[in-house]
């Protein structure tokens, strides 16, 4: 099986390429492929002939999308549609990565794949639109929603993943204020990458949720990361309204993984175990 990976410079893309090895037909980031250009996508697929395309390219600036939704819609929605149509025309399977932010958090119990999406922010709208365009293209596809991805190679513009940023700020002696009223399932990029490939190998199709086991708030994640890294710092727990972020987030966005388990995917390990491995191995800058 030959697999092409878009968004290969990000934390999920890097993990995928590392696992794929010789099965990688092509892997690149925005410098190698403009996913918003359908002609460029067609040329690439005609050149490398992949059996599967994993779309890990994404615009992840949630607050930035609230101020200017156009880039998020272009990358997360329109580009996903271009990829889906190109894959359909060439008989390739498209694996598209989506987000827990398509839900509003009102349910207060793990969201299932058939729960009605209701995004609270422009980023969530763009991720939902991308999934709808992938499905509407009519080709073989797998849409995987995930949550709170962290791992090596986080967003350079943001200063790395949430975990990396918290540890860096703590080491610099900055005050730490983290929201405690948003609950989700932190997901380790290498675990997610392995799960995606496992589902591909099993021929999974449709929409599935994949996260590490367990759930927590962002405040709990920050506290756990500091404790495991041996960094002494106080993290003030605050409400979302105190942070004043431009984009609203769901207060609860834990995803049920039962459909993926039914497809033969073993449950991913608890997020605390994955966090401990991240900090031991590919730890944050300055360790």
| Anisotropy-based shape | globular
User: Mean pLDDT across all residues, rounded?
Assistant: 94
Number of separate strands: 12
Low-confidence spans: pLDDT under 50, at least 5 residues? Answer: 282-287
Structural class: alpha/beta
The topology string of helices and strands comes to EHEHEHHEHEEHEEEHEEHEHHH
Strand content: 15-25%
Distance separating the two termini: 38 Å
Largest sheet: 6 strands, parallel
Helical stretch tally = 11
Evaluate the radius of gyration: 18 Å
Sheet with the most strands: spatial strand order: 2-1-3-4-5-10
Helix amount:
40-55%
Question: Could you provide a short overview of the structure?
Answer:
The chain is 41% helix and 16% strand.
Could you walk me through the main structural features you see in this protein, from its secondary elements to its overall organization?
The chain is α/β, with parallel strands linked by helices and 287 residues long. It contains eleven helices and twelve strands. Strands 2-1-3-4-5-10 form a six-stranded parallel beta sheet, sandwiched between helices. Strands 6-9 form a two-stranded parallel ribbon. Helix 1 (11-20) links the parallel strand 1 and strand 2. Helix 2 (38-48) runs parallel beside helix 4 and helix 4 (70-90) packs parallel to helix 5 (122-136). The longest helix is centred in the first third of the chain and has 21 residues, at 70-90. Mean pLDDT is 94; it is low at 282-287.
């Amino acid at each position: 099986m030959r697999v092409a990976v878009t968004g290969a410079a990000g934390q999920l893309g890097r993990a995928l390429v590392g696992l794929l090895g010789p099965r990688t037909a092509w892997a690149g980031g925005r410098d190698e492929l403009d996913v918003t250009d359908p002609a460029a996508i067609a040329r690439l697929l005609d050149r490398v002939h992949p059996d599967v395309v994993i779309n890990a390219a994404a615009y992840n600036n949630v607050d930035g999308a609230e101020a200017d939704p156009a880039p998020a819609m272009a990358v997360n929605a329109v580009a996903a549609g271009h990829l889906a149509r190109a894959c359909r025309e060439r008989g390739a399977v498209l694996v598209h990565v989506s987000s827990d932010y398509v839900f509003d958090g009102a349910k207060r119990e793990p969201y299932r794949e058939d729960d009605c999406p209701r995004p609270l922010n422009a980023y969530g709208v763009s991720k939902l639109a991308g999934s709808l365009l992938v499905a509407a293209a009519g080709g073989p596809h797998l849409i995987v929603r995930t949550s709170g991805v962290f791992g090596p190679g986080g967003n350079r513009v943001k200063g790395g993943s949430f975990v990396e940023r918290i540890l860096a700020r703590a080491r610099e002696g900055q005050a730490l204020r983290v929201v405690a009223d948003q609950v989700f399932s932190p997901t380790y990029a290498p675990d997610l990458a392995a799960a995606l490939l496992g589902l591909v190998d099993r021929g999974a199709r449709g929409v599935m949720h994949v996260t590490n086991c367990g759930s927590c708030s962002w405040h709990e994640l920050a506290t756990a990361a500091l404790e495991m890294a041996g960094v002494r710092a106080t993290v003030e727990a605050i409400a979302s309204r105190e942070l004043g972020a431009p984009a609203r987030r769901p207060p609860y966005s834990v995803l049920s993984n039962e459909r993926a388990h039914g497809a033969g995917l073993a449950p991913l390990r608890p997020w605390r175990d994955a966090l401990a491995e991240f900090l031991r191995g590919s730890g944050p800058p300055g360790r």
